[in-house]
């Protein structure tokens, strides 16, 4: 869910993964790579700091993103043990 939202917001702003990574790195002084963006879009959860920055930059409610990540983690088999 988070990954799809991130992808949709990035594409709607006409940004490549590399451009978004560069924007976040430069604007927020946090090291973000295009491979991190790729992993996030494929389902990996970002750090809390990165989540806050993504929410701010893409103008998405942080609570909405946190809920999406928590819900997706609950449905993964490795987190159900």
| Percentage of residues in helical conformation | 55-70%
Query: What is the H level of CATH, i.e. the homologous superfamily?
Result: lambda repressor-like DNA-binding domains
Q: How many strand segments? A: 0
Terminal CA distance reads 22 Å
Cα-atom radius of gyration: 12 Å
Structure in words:
The protein is an all-alpha fold and 81 residues long. It has one domain (2-72): lambda repressor-like DNA-binding domains (434 Repressor (Amino-terminal Domain), Orthogonal Bundle), CATH 1.10.260. Helix content is 68%, strand content 0%. It contains five helices and no strands. Helix 2 (17-28) packs across helix 3. It is globular. Residues 77-81 have low confidence and may be disordered.
Topology:
Layout: H1 2-12, H2 17-28, H3 34-41, H4 48-58, H5 62-74
Helix pairs in contact: 2-3
Protein name: HTH cro/C1-type domain-containing protein
Domain HTH cro/C1-type: 32-65
Pfam family, one: HTH_3
């Amino acid at each position: 869910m988070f990954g799809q939202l991130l992808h949709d917001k990035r594409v709607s702003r006409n940004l490549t993964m590399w451009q978004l990574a560069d924007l976040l790195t430069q604007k927020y002084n946090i090291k973000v790579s295009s491979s991190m963006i790729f992993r996030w879009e494929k389902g990996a959860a970002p750090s809390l700091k990165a989540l806050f920055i993504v929410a701010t930059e893409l103008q998405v409610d942080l609570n909405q993103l946190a809920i999406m990540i928590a819900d997706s983690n609950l449905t993964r088999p490795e987190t159900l043990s």
